[in-house]
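Methods: example folding runs. The two proteins below were folded one after another, and each record is reproduced exactly as written to the output file, sequence line first and structure-token line second.
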Amino acid sequence: MKGRDAIENSTDFVSGAVSMANSAASIGGTSGTTRQVLGVVGSVGDAIKPFVPLIATVTIVISECIKIYEDAQYNKKICNSLMDRVETADWAIRTLKRRKQENESKFRDSEYYKAFLRFVDVMKKIRSFIKDVSQIQGFKKYVKATAIKDKFHHLIKEFEAVMSDLSFTMAIANDEQRRLDQESLNEDIAQMNKFLKEIQGGIIEQNDTINTVLQEVIIMKNKVDQLKDQRRPDLPISETLKATTIEPKDIMDPLVGKKTDCRGKKEPFIYKKSYKAMEVACIPRAIPEDDSPQANKIQAQLAILGKLRDSPNILKFYGLSHLDNQMVMVVEWAELGSLREVYNTYDIAWPSKVQIALDICRGITFLHTCSILHHDIRCANIMMTLRLEPKITGFEYARLTTSATTSMTELTDVVHWLAPEKLKLAKDQPYNTKCEIFSFGMLLWELAFEKIPYENWNMERIKEWVLSGKRERLVFGRDKPEIEELQQEYKQIIVAAWQDDSQIRASLQFLFMELNKLAQKYYDPRSNSPALKPDKTIDLDGTLYKNDPVSVSDQGGEDLPEFEDDFSLDSIPEIPTLDDGISAHKKKETTKPWDIFCEHTNLGSTKAKYWKGYYLWEGYAGQKDRKQASTLFKEAADDGLADAQLRYAFSLVGNQGSKFDRKVFIEYLTKAAENQNSTAQFNLGDLYLNGKLGVPQNVELGKKYLRLAALTNQPKAIEILQKLGMNIYNDNKLNKI
């Protein structure tokens, strides 16, 4: 596997780990499968039995860490430092399994077993942290940069301590590694903060928090993914998830008509209209209007599309209406048509090309932050306003909620922009962010040279060319010195985006920051120089010069003896899992869960601290100590557990012996809300909506949090929104369809 060769990530390896867990009960018997997986016999098998499910769990966690790392778009250096530890853990586990006989005494040691439980917990924490920092939403959970650094150093400290307790060899616990770790932390955090400051585009709000609409879209996506062949009865507010309906009477003809108000060479035509004093396009669509599962799903996907209008670089979808006895989608009007139509009509000045590319990158970032992949990034799917503002469009319904593999029919249309991994394994390779970045790189080329990549080539020729590591020509025509300098910098961005090895392909963050540098350096919105020039006036590709197409390198991308049958073994006591304790709690038991929660708290489990705190708070199992409970809630809260953040906040209210701190209360309630705890979202929304606890009233912010809570069926939030006459799926009042 490229990038992380030391870690085996094959299907056989992971399934083998699962097989180990499933076979735990039969360890020491005569099962052929058991002997094959573990390679142990007799008493050694009995000794390792308690460790089998733990080893299997760690193996799967390691595999998940690899997948998260490979898909990471942000803070790659921080993730890399943690993956160094994951590799070390992987090697240690392999060595432990290979040398089972030599390690038999450890397998009998109860303290070693407890240390291994801590090891499992630490590996899960590392997995969660990598997942958080590799995504914008997860990164913003940590309010300050110091919180990320503290969490990182705490994880490393925990990891090194438990590795030492297990006598696992570590080649990375040294001063040089710590220096590299600190450099990675500082560089990634500085770059990420700069990126978040510049990205704008509806992602970061004025109060430096993630736009709640992004969370709403993710929740709505999950709901659509769960829709089966019947209407879901558990969708809140008596309505299924639907697009906004626009009354036909609200759609007017333009005050002054023009020939360009009608688009298309044949029916159905697209018409320019006016809606709420905005210029809109009415696009005929054959959308089923019955109550079928297909109709409900399309309606839900269109409702999601409506939410995306918070991004200034995505074509706004306002809703559905009826005109001339046909269903139409009402969308933002883009006067100049598609970007492809623009470059076929004009030559676009180079500084304007850079700004257009930057804004498209903003729009793609917004989509990816919503966990939405476009699947068809090209100039034909970018609409342009009179001010040359790009607006991403061309969404297929199914693409809003799934990463469905492209069909062969669709391949014919998109093959010019398609990533090599999709060309190689079209059906088996899931479309991911790396594929989208490659397509964006091809769009950058298309924008630069104002023509379709590999124009007039058939699919097989394109496939053979791209899979051999070759790309389109990157040769520019003569221009002013500063423009030629711009072109060379732009060229490097393209090359970074279309790398053959997806693991060394540039991240969207990198592409955005590089384009942002170019725009700040070369684009002046106050310039009197025309952005659009007559067609064929710019020497785009220097056809007088012959260069070979740019070729991008594919590079960075013992049998054990039998024991006597009468061997005597004093087995160590197995500690029930934390899930066992939670299951016992649900069965109304108290003593058993309490003992399990205490045991796992002593092992450092975040979730166990929360549960022990809960028992101490409520007085279960004859134990009651709300001060200690609050302390445990805070420890778990600071580890990022949403439920603990909520309970710690409320443990500050009316807790005898402690003074209520409103600032801390709101801080932890907000953390829980941002961590998608619906109860926290409701309480925070109620607090801002009504100005409780002396907090300045902020109705709009209150509504945002209430809507997030209602989207996950929080009953009190639904009740308040119903009283306000609000539809939780959009910003309009309730409307009946």
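Second run, written to the same file directly after the first:
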Amino acid sequence: MKNKESGFTLVEMLIALSLFTILASFSILLLKPQQTALTENNFITQLQADLYYGQTYALANQQLVQVKIFPAIKRYYLHEEIGTGYLVNRYYDPSVEFLNQSSISFYILPNGNFSRFRSYDFSIANQKYRITTLIGKGRFYVTEL
């Protein structure tokens, strides 16, 4: 009776390992677009949530809330008045680029309306968006261009 050992040879193991490495590298390349989509969705959703919070705060406390966006340093904040703390203070992803590089400022009035109506254009990974604030009823929306 022969002592036969079944197993894989070194060559078979190397082939299997190289195939696994190639498949793993392809999956990493496919995840990059998912990360970009997630960044887009996170920024837009967070900005909308923060603006809704600012409106709610202004209505509940009958206070003026200032919204200020600094595209040069990738930051925006909401605060009640000078000398008080921030209601929201966020730094956003570097892939978000506002087309207007100067600071953007507007107010949320005590009745929840915005102080000015205007459109602000920004891009995330070469996809352009526009946030539009409407003066009546405190409405705003984000559209993909």
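Comment on the second run: The chain has one domain: 36-144.
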